[in-house]
């Protein structure tokens, strides 16, 4: 698959992402959960990081499709269900566990936490936070997803379905809009919701170290990293040791993982 032939397909796949992003941004204006305040700089930084993330994903997606196609020609497949939809469902569940595991390690491994700091230092969680990610974190997540996808022998279509769901739900779960509490609680039994994920962005370490789920909350429940989303409306965002992160430039944000470590600042939360 060449870069030029892949570009139109990739760009067409971004259309639903931008449409959902625009819809959620509108919801944030109409029914905001937290007051936005003056945040033009942080929004510009987040959008710049989004463009870097999308560019990186373009190249990594081509690499992953090539790897999966090669693996299937070599017979590297652990799944051979007769039903294509069951194949896709299995891949989604397994890759969501892989994403949960990758996220957990971003919090537990010091060098990975340095990369993940970029995401957690946002002073307000909204739809633009979805793609506030260091390229190094994107590469780490890709490696973990690729290992599991190759191990399964997943089809490119199944992996594409998971990545599309993941991107769309990232916009949804970071959205700064009010959700009726009982609706959120009901959805959170089966799906990662905005209130579920808001607690993960808390400056309180006991909440930051929970709710790692991407699509499905079942892994947090199974591995006892689940926290009830009831307190999402009063959560305080960010990292206490980086109160001025919203004033950083794009260059400073990208250099953040490589800055000289001040005592306690770049250590993972637990």
List the helices and strands and how they pair.
Layout: H1 3-30, H2 40-73, H3 84-108, H4 110-120, H5 135-152, H6 156-174, H7 181-187, H8 194-198, H9 205-208, H10 218-222, H11 250-255
Helix pairs in contact: 1-6, 2-5, 3-4, 3-5, 3-6
Gyration radius, rounded: 18 Å
Arithmetic mean pLDDT: 88
Q: What's the number of extended β-strand segments?
A: 0
Main sheet attributes: strand count, strand direction, barrel closure: none
Uncertain runs with pLDDT below 50, 5 residues or more? Answer: none
Helix content: 55-70%
Number of helices: 11
> Judging from the principal axes of the Cα atoms, what is the shape?
globular
DSSP strand content: under 5%
Question: How many domains in all?
Answer: 1
Q: Output the structural class.
A: mainly alpha
SSE string, helices as H and strands as E? HHHHHHHHHHH
How far is the first residue's CA from the last residue's CA? Answer: 42 Å
